[in-house]
Write a structure and sequence with these properties.
heterodimer; A: mainly alpha; MetI-like fold; disordered N terminus; B: mainly alpha; 13 helices; 77% helix
Chain lengths: 302, 306
Amino acid sequence: MSTLAAPSAPASPGPAAAVERGNSLWHDAWLRLRKNRLAVFGAVSLIVVSLACFIGPLFSPYGYEDQLLDLGASAPSASHWLGTDTLGRDLFVRLLYGGRVSLGVGLAATVVALTIGVVYGAVAGYFGGKLDAAMMRIVDIMYSLPFTIFVILLMVFFGRDIILLFVAIGAVEWLTMARIVRGQVMSVKRMEFIEAARSLGFGKRRLIFRHILPNVLGPIIVYTTLTIPGVMLLEAFLSFLGLGVQPPMSSWGVLIKDGAEKMEEFPWLLLFPGTVFSLTLFSLNFLGDGLRDALDVRSSKD
Amino acid sequence: MFRFFASRLLQSLLALLVIITATFFMLRFVPGGPFTAEKAVTPEILRNLEAHYGLDKPLWHQYVDYLGSLLRGDFGPSFKYPNRTVNEILADKLPVSIELGALSLVVALLIGLPLGTLAAIRRNTWIDYCASSFGMMGISIPTFVVGPLLVLAFAIHVGWFNASGWYTLSDRVLPCLVLGIAYAAPIARLTRGGMLEVLHQDFIRTARAKGATELRVVFKHSLRGGLLPVVSFLGPAIAGILTGSFVIETIFQIPGLGREFVNSAFNRDYTLVLGTVILYAGLIMSLNLAADLTQAWMNPKVRLEG
């Protein structure tokens, strides 16, 4: 990793002392990231939330669809830490299960967006010329399309299927990634070590994937971190409209929707899911910003 | 400049045609039709209904017919509201959504621009930190959390506003505030970034050296360049506000186009869905075009790339 990353030093001229100690770009970035309190807070709370969501339900006496109808909606108590909803389902457990769905959709859709965006951007950036102009014009045009509307139509017509949900979201979110990767690839491909690799007779595919892409990893990582909250927002947005995840399964969007409907009598049903969801988005954004500073990436977005 | 405009316009029209075609055929290939939900429709009635709406003709024929009537500005009859045309429904609902969107955009600009400019001028002071925390909040707390919370606080507990509806002026406050704040955050962030970049340039130092007051430096020399990123963000922002209004209209039960669109999709009201999609797409694209033109006018460098 470190040897591959070394040539991207122009993006980050580390201090001379660090170079003497043989620190790689990644080590430098790690040191800088560690000093950024907000980013560390973001990383830690993300780890806590994810662990809780994926391991927590194993220790719970309740399932996400277990109803205690006699109990109905009850305020937070010792046996139900965050209270129960109108069907007597434990909110804490539903929050954890909902987190699995929300985080899972966030990750999966981001992977889809990442794959399309990186390949598309790398090809456009590497080959340049007319191909690049045509490919980026397509991206420009797609930017101006009302995609959320299409995602809504897809979800209404083709059933509210989780797989379809993240494919649809991923297909919307790759555009910015493609732009960023293209810009980075265009600057890296003119560097000498690429010339050297080309003169050694390596094929185009090897040049792009083995030599160029590892050097634009920084921006890719940063933008991936910032894409996840966007994707999670879109999922929650759809679930809020009743188009995403379907009951009795829960996701944070579903819980917020249910909570908003009943907030007048049972405000905790809105407050807890809203807080956890916002906290997670905060953490991802803080971490993304921290990574951007640490890896010294100039985003082309802002 | 004219060439730039013409090529962008052509592009938009082409994209619009692609959208119309894609939506049209997607709607026809989905399982379930507009009349499947109605109970006990005999095959004869179904045939008559389909004949009435021209659904029995071959698909390409329907497509050509539809495009023809579109050119005459006719979106066709609604399938679910038998006595109303899509034009009537759109004319009924669109003004509400436009008002909501326009007011929200005004709120976003009124909060975002001054905040971002202040943050850039007073960089690394408490003003700057407050502005960036506000920006983070706007990005991380979604409208469908802020909206219900504000309703809970100001409508239900304090009682200043109605929890829902769209009748009086005070009914506009909460929805527009919620939607506006969400976009004030990125606008403030972009303004700050743009202003910082400009304030570092040589001509600003020259202006200062010539004895220009700080106010003059900001308003006369910096704003035009500093606001460029904001102008290019306006297109996406307007698209976001339009789609964001789906949620806002649901929360506050506003009789706008967003809610109608989601309902029409559920009802399989093909013509209404198509009409709404075309209207939204056309609106978003013309606003994007306007943003592009403004940007080209403010920054001659863009024109050359067009």
